Structure to design on (155 residues):
């Protein structure tokens, strides 16, 4: 690795956006890992499996609504320990003269810093993880229900 590559990597890792991204990924992966380990247990019964699946789905729904604020708190604490300023870069906007009848209805253009990160990173990551998990788990859930019905009918 060249010295300039190492410097670029160091500069990226030392940003608040990177720290916050790692906190978000930790929350997502930790929740999935806990459920995954429980589902792999040899003593896991069908009822408990279905509860775990419902639990992780409701976790993602709650995390989508409340997780950004809690992730910000953890990221700010981590940034403080690391000596990193807990702020987002402000993107420059081109200014132009408004016409008298023009409304400022382009909300996306007005997103700044924290809101921009929440909308364009946090919600995207949580929605992608949640939808992938929901598809996989719903398929597994239905398979287990049918398997359970099959097993109870043949005993």
């Amino acid at each position: 690795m060249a010295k300039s590559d190492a410097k670029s990597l160091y500069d990226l890792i030392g940003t608040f956006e990177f720290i916050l991204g790692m906190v978000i990924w930790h929350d997502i992966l930790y929740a999935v890992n806990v459920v995954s380990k429980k589902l792999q247990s040899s003593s896991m019964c069908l009822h408990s499996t279905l509860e775990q699946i419902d639990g992780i789905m409701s976790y993602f729904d709650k995390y989508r609504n409340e997780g950004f604020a809690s992730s910000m708190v953890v990221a700010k604490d981590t940034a403080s320990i690391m000596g990193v300023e807990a702020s987002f870069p402000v993107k420059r906007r081109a200014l132009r003269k408004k016409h008298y009848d023009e409304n400022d209805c382009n909300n996306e253009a007005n997103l700044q810093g924290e809101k921009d990160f929440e909308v364009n990173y946090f919600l995207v990551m949580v929605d992608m993880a949640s939808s992938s998990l929901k598809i996989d788990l719903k398929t597994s859930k239905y398979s287990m229900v049918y398997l359970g019905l099959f097993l109870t009918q043949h005993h």
Q: What stands out?
A: The first helix runs from residue 3 to 13. The two ends are 63 Å apart (CA to CA). DSSP finds five helices and no strands in the chain. The chain has a mean pLDDT of 79.
